[in-house]
Amino acid sequence: xxxxxxxxxxxxxxxxxxxxxxxxxxxxxxxxxxxxxxxxxxxxxxxxxxxxxxxxxxxxxxxxxxxxxxxxxxxxxxxxxxxxxxxxxxxxxxxxxxxxxxxxxxxxxxxxxxxxxxxxxxxxxx
Length: 126
Fold this sequence. Notes:
Elements: E1 3-7, H1 11-22, E2 27-31, H2 34-43, E3 48-52, H3 60-70, E4 78-82, H4 87-96, E5 100-103, H5 108-125
Parallel strand pairs: 1-2, 1-3, 3-4, 4-5
Helix pairs in contact: 1-5, 2-3
């Protein structure tokens, strides 16, 4: 079973994403802010990390930098979700070390399709 860390501070969106992913038998660990996400990252291994850009305590961008510099999960693919969809923000996120960017709003099926693609690609690499 693939394990996904989801860090999203908007409870309704977090629950929608969790329900969508869990219906496909992914194990989802949910964090409601950046600090909780970092705590989970220190204590567990994941196949995919899905981060919201704007969260309390640490932003998704700050988390990416911490993961890529010294995190246990530094080689895990990271998808950033953000309402900040200008090209400059996308470039900043990708330069920090994210592998994928998805602009909000998005459909649950769009997200699920992207997650499947990412995890299938990871299976091919391993």
